[in-house]
Amino acid sequence: MRATCLNMVYDLAKRDKRVLFIGSDLSPGLLADMQKEMPERWYMEGITEANVIGMAAGFAMEGYIPYVNTIATFITRRCYEQVAVDLCLHELPVRLIGNGGGLVYAPLGPTHLAIEDIAIMRALPNMTVTAACDAKEMVRLMNCTLDWPHPIYIRLAKGGDPVVSRDENGFAIGKAIPMRRARARRSIVLMATGVMTTNALAAAETLAKEGHDVAVVHFHTIKPLDEEAVLEFSRDAELVVTVEEGTMIGGFGSAVADVLIEKLGTRLPPLVRIGLPDAFPHKYGLQDELFEVYGLAPAQIAARVAKSLKVREKVA
Amino acid sequence: MAGAQVAQTLSLATPPLDERSKYLRRLVVRTLHGGERGHVGSSLSLIEIMRVLYDDILRYRPSEPKWSARDRMILSKGHGCIAQYVMLAEKGFIPHETLDTFCRRDSILGGHPEAAKIPGVEASTGALGHGLSYGVGMALAARIEKRDTRVIVVMGDGEINEGSVWEAALCAGKHKLANLTAVIDYNKIQSAGPTREVQDLEPILDKWRAFNFATVDVDGHDVDALRDVFRGLPLAADRPSAIICHTVKGKGIAFAENDANWHHKSKIAKDMVTKLYAALE
């Protein structure tokens, strides 16, 4: 997904002279062909995130569309005021590509784990927040970024992620994609973002085998959230479950909950949010291992949903 | 010679304020009266810098604020905005009457300038340490398009405490941005007190030189000297320029000069306005 995303920057730059790339201190040889072909639109500026964001803003004020890339924690936390003031207040079309969203950098520890990137980016006025589920979808997203007039945060997954998205579903920023249809309106609805959509689909398979009727809706855009889709799938749901690889404070599940509370009032469907707790991850290992630590592996998601249904049946 | 020594020498030689400098300061007082508040000291130290830039140096069209061939002047120390507002009024970007609305609910003139509201303002500033990076991006854009645009970023001395300024300086030096100029309003007093005590900047010229800027220092209230320095830009053909302007916080109002308590004032009532005008007689 990362390689696809960056190659797309080069591809877009070939199509549109407004596009340029700014990295911080990334791998040697990154986008070397682009650097060679269009050196005036390829920049590697070192570990100066605050400056890189401001510089991108300066370019954007002159009509350019800068794609800025570094590790997700550093492009969000490290230069948050620059993102807020330089990009969001000025409402500039700068694209922030964050490597390793969520738990990707598991072995590197909490300084490198972007657990609240979605929450803090979402809080900024004018910011668009995206988390594609695979490399194919990343291509579709990147193609939409040329003409989107607002700043965009593009959260990247680990890379080599299984492809679950489908071309025929189309793609528009802010438009959720139903990935699995339920038989009846009164079903279990799993809503997920990023690669958690892949895990939600696998969990849905397990639940279906157990006899449950399950829908899965993919939200590649967390902001602006497709409120219509949230409401359409929630209204008659037996249970709504949000799944995210990030903190539940202010994240995707919060965004969904906000819409439900605001729009459905007392007719709220039962809601379960699955995500990371309010704590810095304290273990290393692999991303998949941390999924298991936090209950984000497909089997765990399925088990959590099944358990939640049982509890509700008991109460009923 | 160390910067502070130069400052002392220069301030002794500062010519008295001429009628235009006093008139511009009266416009500052008019603006303060309108909002009953404002960054008094921080605006008054900037007056001659803004005056010379708008009167003699910058290319712009008030009727066409986004004219592509304009020079880009970013007031990175956004809290000094009254000094820019009075020049925007003088040049016809905004009516003088707008100064009277300063900081009022529906005014376009806030306590920090917003680009989306005020014609002639390049960037919304106020949070310190952002402007030089904007300037780097703008200067690189001009280079790509082979425009002879000059990019001038005016910063405060307290502002350059910010690490982001030095990140931007590294970047500007690396790219040898001769079309970029950093101007420092070195009034030597920040909000909490003297810069020497709060966060010493000396040797300030050496710092900018070490970041590969060509440097010069000048009396920031001497109109002729400022004009000469700005007309001499770029200071070097292969480097960005840094102009250290030795200024006096609160310049022109004797009782406010060099007094950190006059960095910002609120509740500026009519009797105080009268005193401010009287000090400019």
Overall structural domain count of chain A: 2
The chain pair with the largest interface is: A-B, 28 and 29 residues
How many extended strands of chain A? 12
Beta percentage of chain A is 15-25%
Return Rg of chain B in Å.
Answer: 18 Å
The SSE order of chain A reads HEHEHEHHEHEHEEEHEEHEHEHH
Residue ranges of chain A: pLDDT <50 for 5 or more in a row? none
Domain unit count of chain B: 1
How do the SSEs of chain B run, as a string of H and E? HHEHHEHHEHEEEHHEHEEH
Going across the biggest sheet of chain A, name each strand in turn: 2-1-3-4-6-5-10
User: What's the tally of helices of chain A?
Assistant: 12
CATH superfamily of the largest domain in chain A: Thiamin diphosphate (ThDP)-binding fold, Pyr/PP domains
Shape of chain A: globular
- How far apart, in Å, are the first and last alpha carbons of chain A? 44 Å
- Unreliable spans of chain B are 1-9
Q: Please tell me the overall pLDDT of chain B.
A: 95
Q: What is the class of the largest domain in chain A in the CATH system?
A: Alpha Beta
Strand content of chain B is 5-15%
Please describe what this structure looks like.
The complex is a heterodimer of chains A (about 325) and B (about 280). Helix content of chain A is about 40%, strand content about 20%. Chain A folds into two domains: about 1-155, Rossmann fold (3-Layer(aba) Sandwich); about 170-315, 3-Layer(aba) Sandwich (Rossmann fold). Chain A has about 325 residues and is α/β, with parallel strands linked by helices. In chain A, α3 packs parallel to α5 (about 80-90). A seven-stranded mixed beta sheet of chain A has the order 2-1-3-4-6-5-10, sandwiched between helices. In chain A, about 55% of the residues are buried. Chain B is an alpha/beta fold. Chain B has a single domain, classed as Thiamin diphosphate (ThDP)-binding fold, Pyr/PP domains (Rossmann fold, 3-Layer(aba) Sandwich). Chain B is built from eleven helices and nine strands. Chain B has helices at about 5-15, 20-35, 40-45, 45-55, 80-90, 130-145, 165-175, 195-200, 205-210, 225-230, 270-280; strands spanning about 35-40, 70-75, 150-155, 180-185, 190, 195, 215-220, 240-245, 265. In chain B, the strands form three sheets. In chain B, strands 2-3-4-8-7 form a five-stranded parallel beta sheet, sandwiched between helices. A two-stranded antiparallel sheet of chain B has the order 1-9. Chain B has a two-stranded antiparallel sheet with strand order 5-6. In chain B, α6 runs parallel beside α7 (about 165-175). The radius of gyration of chain B is 18 Å and the shape is globular. The N and C termini of chain B lie far apart (about 35 Å). Mean pLDDT of chain B is about 95; it is low at about 1-10. The interface of A and B includes residues 43, 48, 50, 51 and 55 of A.
